Amino acid sequence: MDYNVFTKNEVDLLLAEIEDLERNKFCPGRRLAFSPELSRLAQGQGLASVKKALAELVVLDLTVAVKLSPAFLAKIGRWLREEINQKVILDIKVDPSIIAGAIVSYGGKYRDLSAGRGLEEWFTRESTRIQTLINEDR
Amino acid sequence: MLIEPIFIYILLVTIFFLSAVLIIVVWTQISAFKKFSEIKRETEQLRGSLIEKEADVLCSARRKGKQIIVSALKKATAIEADARVNQKQFKKLLNEELNRVMHRYSLRLEENSQKAFVFYQKSLEENMDKNIKILNDNAEDFKKALLSSLEKEIKEQKEEKLKRLSEEIFKVLQEASGEVLNRSLSLSNHEDLVLEALEKAQKSHGL
């Protein structure tokens, strides 16, 4: 199945839509139209299969400093599917304190590759020199 | 009907005997009544005499009691009068004695306080001289010690404050660096850095 969804938010919205459609299956004024993405996924197969396939997707937690554009998210989503796993989706969290870069958590592994951590390490490493400079300035 | 003479005789004897018995009984009763009357009279006389004696005894007891009370009152009045006199005299004597004692003690107290004052003044002057000397001797040492202690304390406080200030500047510098770096990066730079981080993670088998 070709998933054109790359974030957990998008998957959650699709699952909610499927739930809604299933719940109102026998109601007289039921919803008939799917969202374009769900229509595309449901072509040739039932909603149950789509639901099952969406539930099998694997989440990669990605913490970033700023809100990223959907195009860029799609780009890294595709890249991750090529390089790591075909069923991966992104759970994006925005935390300005990390300054830049990203914190990645996937399959029980955690990597802090943020500029915040790098800056902190640099300051720890250079603290004596910085303190000396501060004291000299005074 | 003919009655035997023996029966008549027995009847006469019986009548005689009964008459004799009756006479004896009557006489005995009369004599007993006489004795009773006599005893009654004697009893009445005795009772009368007893009442008289009792009245006499009561009368004499009352008289004696009255005499005792009168004499006791007289004695009490006399004792009270004596006591008043004695109290006045005692008060007078006590006052005189107290005045005498107070006068004596005030004189002695004045004398002693004068002595004590002289002694105290002398000792105070001696002590003051001694203390002034000791103070003069110690003042210089104290001044030096105080200055040294104050200098040390000021130095320590200064160092502590400078250390705290340095820490604060360091913290501010760190935060400011982060903020400046964050703001100086464009969205495109951020995206490049995210991609770079992912690639680095993938290359170092972090994913």
From TrEMBL, chain A:
One Pfam family matching this protein: OSCP
Cellular component terms (Gene Ontology): membrane
Compartment(s): Membrane
InterPro entries in the record: ATPase_OSCP/dsu
Keyword terms, alphabetized: ATP synthesis, Hydrogen ion transport, Ion transport, Membrane, Transport
Tagged with keyword Ion transport: yes
Listed GO MF terms: proton-transporting ATP synthase activity, rotational mechanism
Name the UniProt record assigns to this protein: Uncharacterized protein
Organism whose genome encodes this protein: Candidatus Shapirobacteria bacterium CG09_land_8_20_14_0_10_39_12
TrEMBL record, chain B:
UniProt organism field: Candidatus Shapirobacteria bacterium CG09_land_8_20_14_0_10_39_12
UniProt key word Transmembrane helix: yes
Membrane-spanning ranges: 6-27
Keywords annotated in UniProt: Coiled coil, Membrane, Transmembrane, Transmembrane helix
Coiled-coil regions listed in the entry: 95-175
Name the UniProt record assigns to this protein: Uncharacterized protein
Domain of life: Bacteria
